[in-house]
Every structure is written in C-alpha cells, then in structure tokens.
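Continuing from the previous page of notes. For each protein in this section, the sequence appears first, followed by its structure tokens. Read the first protein now.
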Amino acid sequence: MRNRVNIEAHSSQLRLPSLDIQVLIDLFPFTLVLDRNMTIVNAGEKVIETWIIHNPGKNPKSFIGSKITEHFRCRRPKETKFEWDVIIDMRAVLFELELIRTGRADESSRLQAAAMSAADVENYDEILMSEQLKNLSAGNLAENDNEND
C-alpha cells in the first residue's frame, strides 16, 4: 500500500496558478481567515451576518481585526488549546467553533430572526398557494376552451 501513495508532487501540481482568497470566501461562507496572532483577517458572509445578529449594539467593522477568542470558543476537539501552533499541528482535524453569545440583546435578536423566518415561511405558503390557484385557473380556462371547440 505504501508504494501506491505519491510521496512527491507531480510537476503539473507545482505550476498551479494562485487563487484569490475572495473566491474561497465566496465559496465557503462560513470561513474564518486568521493570522499567526489569532486575529480575524477575513470572514465569510454568513459568519459576519451571524456575528451582527448576535451583537446588535456593536460596530460590524470591529469584527475584522479582533482576536478570534473574543468572539468564538473551540467546541471540538475538546480540551484543546485554541492557539496558532496547535491549529497548525492539527490541520487535518476539524475544528468546531461556537459564537460566544452576548446575553439579552442576543435573545431579542434570535426572537426577531425567528419571527422573520416564520413570516418568510408564511409568505412562501401564500405565494405557493396563489401560484397553484393561477395554474388551476389556467387549467380550467384551457379545459373550457377545449369544450367550446
């Protein structure tokens, strides 16, 4: 089995073009980009949206450039120091982060988000029903036209 694994990169792999970080952030909206000081350098859209929802009184621009440990705690792997060297040593391991919630503002924001989601679902049902009625009416009109011919 060991002989089947490529130990060295193929020459075509060494000539791969560089990739813009924004492409990865757009593809993976829950991405966090850190520097060696554990400072948030960039983040995906959904990470930023979630942080804004749970921190309504804070300036959204303060998120980028802050320490990750101010906003997130490491849930998995358990009992692991959340430091740069540990992350690098364990880069093949999935890290699960949890947003640190801020209290009352967080609860009201969650209730607002839940209410908005419920409203969206209700609107979706109304839109779906109106589309079905249109299709039904169009079908009845087509049947009536066929009967009149």
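Done with the first. The second protein uses the same format. Note its length before scrolling.
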Amino acid sequence: GEEMPGVGPSVFRLAQGCDVRLDSSAAAQVARRPVRPAPGTRDRQPPPRMRLWVRPRNAEPDLYFALLAGDLNPPMPLLIGRPGWAPSVQMTAYLRGRPVPGWLRIHVESRAVGGSWFDSDATVLDASGQLVCQARQLALTPGP
C-alpha cells in the first residue's frame, strides 16, 4: 500500500511516546500546507476527514492507549486552514474492546466546523479490524 509519512516530535509532541502515521493529505496539512477549497465551492466540500495509524513505542497497545487514541488526532479545523490550539469543551469516549498487538487505525470526521465550535468523531480499530474505541468531542475552533 501507500507509504504514510511519519510525524516527528517537533510537529506533534505525542510522537515522542508513540509512532504516528497520517494519511498523505492530512500530513501535508499538518506540515502547514493546507488544501484550501476552490473559490465558490466551500459549501460543497466534504466534511474534514483524517486517517491515522498509531502504536505505542516499546509496548503493545492496551485499553489505556486505545482510549488515548480516541483523542490523538490534530484539531480538525487544521484541515481547512485554521491551525492552532482547539480546547475541548466536552468529550465522551467508549472502550469497545481490548486491542490486539499491532497498529491502531483511527478514522476521524468533523460534521460541523463553523464559527467558534467544531465537533469531532473518532473510531479506533485494532490490527484485526475490531472496534476498540469510539470518541466524540465538541471543541472551540482556533482563532481566525
């Protein structure tokens, strides 16, 4: 398959304790090269989505790491060119299973990014494809 670029500790501090891989479009946006919508097409753009792969360094994923993985992604407004800190206002996470050894796959989607708020839904699957965590949060959008 496609080789996913790694994210170094200087960009994403959590990378010091775990291996993180982003899909190529998200990696470009994290590196401050956001893909901006074409003029006049903003309301026809699909919702921001991100795929990540993660595993702890020097250990296998456990329930705590699966829970952490539900909040591991960079803030979703980054994908539409609004980088910065995005404090969570509310977060709910559900552990659905114990992960098997290997990489965890994270799918994140934001259905609403607007004004000063955004939402984020994360689904975490283990190396066998089993659902291990679901997380939903509401957060403040980074400044203009």
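What the second structure shows: The chain has one domain: 13-32+44-140. The helical segments are 24-30, 63-69. We return to this in next week's lecture.
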